[in-house]
Design brief:
This protein has 126 residues and is an all-alpha fold. 74% of the residues lie in helices and 0% in strands. Helix 1 (6-29) crosses helix 2 and helix 3 runs antiparallel to helix 4. The radius of gyration is 25 Å and the shape is elongated.
Length: 126
Amino acid sequence: NFQGEEELFVLGMFCALVAAVIWILIATYFKLPVSSTHSVVGGILAFGFIQKGSAGPNWGAFRRIVMSWFVSPLLGCAISFTLYFFVSRCIYVWKFPISLSKISSHSPAYRANKLLPYLCGLTAFI
């Protein structure tokens, strides 16, 4: 949309960034919850509207951004539920057949100790 108007585009992006920073500083000063992503997206959307009207913003990209705001928490919830379910089953329900320490293999502490290296490896992998 800004072919041949690169300087205007750079100036608009700079202004959107400065506006987002000012808003974040004000909201933080008043101890309000604030999202830097929402602030920058709002600044860029406002720049597109001001410069080119309703044809300025890339509505497809904006739609994907807004969808990610709804999908991300739901996906995070599903992943955390699955991980919590797996870990709680490994620690509190499943029995290890062999005990190699003084702690009973039937105790949750023993099972948590055995599971810890695998969880650390998974965390490092992610």
